[in-house]
Amino acid sequence: MRYLVLSLFLFAFTGIFAQKPNLTGKWLGELPQADKSIHFRIELDLKQVGNKITGSSSFRTLDNHAVSFLVEGSVNGIDVVLNEYKTLNCDCNNQYIFCMKRMRGKFMIDSANSLYAISGIWTSDSSYNGTSYTKSDCAPGTFAIARSVQLRPLDGAYKKTDMANARLSPYANLREGDVTFSKRVWRDIDVREKANRFMASPKQRLIDVLMAAIKDGEVTAYDPTPGKTDPGGDAFTKRLTPAQARSKMADSSLVDHFDKDGNKIGSELRAGEFNPDSVVKFRIKEDWVYDKQRSVFEPQIVGLAPLIKPKAANMNLNYQPAFWVYFPQARRVFANKEVINRNNDATSLSYDDIFMKRLFTSYVIKESNDKDERINDFAQGLDKLRESDKVQKALAGWEHELWKYNN
Predict the structure, then answer these.
(1) Does residue 222 share a domain with residue 370?
(2) Is the model's pTM score more than 0.70?
(3) In the predicted structure, residue 111 carries a pLDDT above the cut 60
């Protein structure tokens, strides 16, 4: 009499565990007889350390004979391998032959019933008859096991997965020989403007996304200090460590020093704690390029920088970049970070969508020129806004002049 396969449970699987599962615990399944008319219970007691699995499997027949095997295996993502390799206990009186199974299955979640489950295919190359191991002639079969877990309730009417699985839209292939016109532009984004307030939402601030990505090593921060090889400080020449990048974002305060007689002898600028709400502006560096191969005139963002306002005695300094990040690298992070929309929670727009589709407002502070001047070097007040509009209209006019319109 042979007891060969585990019957396949009918679970309403509602999701697949995308990250490394924890298989530690007791798992229950069923074993049918050869004709599958009678079912028997099987139990696995597993322990997971890293990707390695150890434990035991046990089974009891209808007439109260039992066998237990040692189990070893591994887990890779949702792929699980479990192998019975040695008899632990057997009360079989040479009456039964038990197949030692090599199980390969997928880890899944039945969130409706708060269950973890593994199902798949098993094969066997050896059997145990109570006294010795023999070559197995067991036919392959299916298996399914499960264990109860305390799953976190779904916070919402449905599960959002599109953003987590979003993929980047690649840039179009651009050859130098196809570029007939190029203009570099720097512009500032003010998150206090109504159209940009989503960037300052406490639920998903842009600066929080950037700082977390830098801390985790997903994005590299670059020093904005000008140098001989980098006069503008925005050419990504010197890398910053995550700690250095965070220190540049800390609010600073001026601390006075006094001598023993109470006379002020100087002052020192000391870094304080980082306050994400203090970041109200960002700067982007972009190239406007005409690609004659595709007949397209479009901008491509090259760099992104949060702006800080340095403090100094009796001086009103302008906003300066705290650090620069290479935008194409940051896109990998932005693509999976949802933007908070004040009107609709189901828009599913990411920060990558916002920048690539130009769903923000900004003003030009500089365009490439022979004097390397910024707009505020020769204009003040409302004149700066007029010059900013002038640059934008000039770019739009250049594209307009490419085409001939017939009435």
Answers:
(1) yes
(2) no
(3) yes
Phi, psi of 261 (to 5 degrees): -95, 5
Going by their DSSP bridges, the two strands 2-3 and 97-110 should be labelled as: parallel
Same domain, 142 and 29: yes
Tell me, yes or no, whether 164 lies in a domain. Answer: no
Phi and psi for 146 in degrees, rounded to 5?
-155, 160
Per-residue pLDDT tens digits for 201-251: 999 999 999 999 999 999 999 999 998 889 899 999 999 999 999 988 876
* DSSP type of residue 83: E
In 3-state terms the chain splits into helix, strand, coil percentages (rounded to 5) of 15, 40, 45
Strand, helix or coil at 152? coil
Its domain, for residue 43, covers 2-148
β-bridge mates for residue 281, sequence order? 190
Q: What is the 3-state secondary structure (H, E, C) of 33-44?
A: CCCCCCEEEEEE
Which own/partner pairs from 28-34 qualify as long-range (CB within 8 Å, at least 24 positions apart)?
A: 28/145, 28/146, 28/147, 29/143, 29/144, 29/145, 29/146, 30/6, 31/3, 31/4, 31/5, 31/6, 31/7, 31/59, 32/5, 32/6, 32/7, 33/1, 33/3, 34/2, 34/4
| Number of Cβ within a 10 Å radius of residue 365 | 19
Residue 338 bridge partners (DSSP): 350
- Please report whether residue 211 resides in a domain: yes
Quote the CA–CA distance of 150 and 156 in Å, as a whole number: 18
* Six-digit token string for 377: 């070097």
Distance CA 22, CA 75 (A): 9
Tally of structural domains, the chain: 2
Judge if 28 and 81 occupy the same domain.
yes
pLDDT tens digits along 330-365? 999 999 999 998 888 887 899 999 999 999 999 999
Q: Could you give the CA distance from residue 267 to residue 265 in angstroms, rounded to a whole number?
A: 7
